[in-house]
Amino acid sequence: MGMSVTISAAVAEDAEQIFKLQYLAFQREAELYGNYLIQPLTQSLDSLKAELAADTVLVARLGDEIVGTVRGSVDEEGTAKIAKLCVHPRLQGHGLGARLLRAVEQALAGPGTTTRFRLHTGHKSESNLRLYRKAGYVEVGGRTASDGVQLVILEKEAKDPTDFTVSA
Question: Which terminus in the chain has less CB density within 10 A, N or C?
Fold first, then answer.
């Protein structure tokens, strides 16, 4: 009997599951960079709870299990900043990351308020870069994170929210 993955807004009670998923999902990134002090692995549960309260946080659920998550917020200039997109390792490579990305873009897009989407990933994270480029993001710069990882910053212009389609 198969189940389908659903995407919805996270609630406060999801914090611990998101925290554990984030820690598990970002292990591959830490290994890739030889750096286990990357921010998603050192973030505290209290900090994550604060993000849940302040930001748009979506989760992908397979039954009762959270198998993916993404966060975002829109700043005063209309830039929607997307962060910490992650999918459980056993479900990676099946399009769930792309679904979460489209869903958070749709959730953050407001009529006349959101002008662009911005996100970042490590410069060695080829699968992430491929996903973002396929979704229309282009490299606009880079920076070094506080943990020493070289980041690629990508952006794309926001469309009218009625133009978004989210596949089931």
Answer: N
Closest CA to 41 of 53, 59, 28: 28
CA 149, CA 168: separation in Å to the nearest integer? 35
Only one residue has tokens 């829109």, namely 74
Q: What is the pLDDT of residues 33-56, one digit of tens each?
A: 999 999 999 999 999 999 999 999
State the DSSP H helix or E strand holding residue 97, giving kind and residue range, or none if neither.
helix 96-108
DSSP string computed for 11-75: -GGGHHHHHHHHHHHTHHHHHHHT-TT-HHHH--HHHHHHHHHHSEEEEEEETTEEEEEEEEEE-
The answer to whether 60 touches 100, Cβ cutoff 8 Å, is yes
How far from chain centre, in Å, is Cα 154?
13
Structure tokens at 94: 């099946």
Cα 131 from Cα 135, distance rounded (Å):
6
Q: Which residue from 72, 82, 93 is spatially nearest to 156, judged by alpha carbons?
A: 82
The yes-or-no verdict on residue 28 having pLDDT over 60 is yes
pLDDT digits (tens, 9 = 90+) for 144-166: 999 999 999 999 999 754 444 44
Three-state DSSP at 34 gives: coil
